[in-house]
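3.2 Worked example (two chains)
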Amino acid sequence: MTHFLRSGHGPEEALVLHCMLGSARGMDMMMAKMGKELSMLAMDLPGHGQSEEWDKTRDYAEMTRDMGLGLLERPAHLIGHSYGGYAALRIACDQPDMVRSLTLIEPVFFAATKHTAPPVFKAYERASRRFLGALAVGDTSSAARAFTGEWGDGSPWESMKPEAMEYITARMPLVAASGAGIAEDSGDVWSRLGRLQMPCLLIEGASSPPIIAAIQDALAGAVPNTTRHVVPEAGHMLPMTHAVEVAELITGFMRDQPRSVEII
C-alpha cells in the first residue's frame, strides 16, 4: 500500500518524493507554492508516513521505485529531495519513458563521487561511521542523533518534539537499507546517466555538506540536459526551510518545458 497526498491543480502532472526519515507531509509548503503549475502526487516512501513497511526481502530502492511507478498512469515530472532525489534518478534510469523531467534537490547519490571526487567520498565515509556504527550495534537513538546532526535542518536534537524523535529513531534501520543504492550503486545508475534525455534541474543549498556539491558536479557532468541552481544560505533541508525559493526555481523550470496537455 502506497500512501500519497494530492496537491495543486496545474496542467502538468508530477510525482514528489521526500527525504529519508521524512514524509510526504513535509513537502506541503513547497507544493502549495507550485499548485498553479502542477498537479502533484506526493508519496510516502516505504516504511514512512502511512505507506506500508519495507519488505526486508526486497531491495529498498527497488521497492521505492515500484511504489512510485505504481502511482503513475502516464509520463510525469519527477521531483525528489535527498533520498527522494536518488529514487527519482533511479526511476528515470529504469523507466525513462515515464519521466518527462527530473528535479533533483540535493540527491544523495554518494556513489557518483567515487568516480569524480574520491577524496570527498572518503570523507563522507568517515563521517557516516558515527551513525552507521551506532546502527550496527543496535543503538538507534545515538544513530538518529548523529544522522540528524549531519543531515538535519541545523536544529539541536534536544529541541525536537518527542514524537519527531520517536519517528526518526524508529526508522533509522531504513538509512542502512538505503546504502546499497546510494553508496554502492547497486542499481547501476552511474553508467546509465548519459542516456537520460529528459531535462534535469539540480538544486542545492550553499551551506549543505560538501559532498552535495560534489554529487551535483558529477550529475551535471554526466546527465546531458541539466540546469543547476544554488540557493544562498540554505542547507540540506531547503524544501522546508526555503520552500518559496525552491518552488520558484521549479516552476520557472517547468515553464520552460513543452506542455504535455493542450491548454485552452
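3.2.1 Second chain
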Amino acid sequence: MIRRNDPIEALIDLMARLPGLGPRSARRVVLHLIRKRAQLLRPLADAIQAVADSAQECLNCGNVGTSKICDLCESESRANGMLCVVEEVSDLWAMERAAVFKGRYHVLGGTLSALDGVGPDELRIPRLIDRIDAENITEVVLALNATIDGQTTAHYIADQLEGRVALSSLAQGVPIGGELDYLDEGTITAAMNARKRF
C-alpha cells in the first residue's frame, strides 16, 4: 500500500484532477507510466516541464503557444478580413483540425454569465472590438457553443458589432447544447460551410 505524502500518491491525486480521469483511471495511468518509465514517464515529465517553462497566451487572439504572438496571427495569408470568434482555445484547435477556416481567430476565454459574475470585461470582448478596425476585419464568424451562455454571448457581440462588419454564425451540424471540442472534423466543416448571417 502507498503511504501518505508518497510521490506516487501525489501524482495519482494530480492526474485524477484532469478532465476525463477519475481516481481509478488516474491510478491505472500512473501504474502504466511507472511500468514504462524509460519510454513514457521520463519523456512525459520532460515534456510537461518544457510546456510549463514556455507556454503562454497569444497577446493578440488568446491562443496558446510558445511565443507572444501565435503563428496564426503572424501568418499574412490569414489576414483575409475574416475573424472567427470562439469561446476557448480547445474550440480554436477543433476548428483548425477541421482545416475549413482560413482566417484569424479570437478566443474569448469563456462566455458571459450573470450567475458567475462574468461580464464583457472579464472576457476578451473589448480586445475583439479593438481588432475589428486594427485588422480591417470585414466578417466575424461567431463560432460559439450552442449553449444558453454561448448564444447569449453571441447576441451580445452581435449587438456590439452591428453595422460595423458582416456577422455570421455556424449552422448545420452543431447540436443545441453541443461543444465544438467534442465534434468531429466533418461536422465542423459542414457547420462552417453552411454558416448563416447572424
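3.3 Remarks
The chain is about 45% helix and 10% strand.
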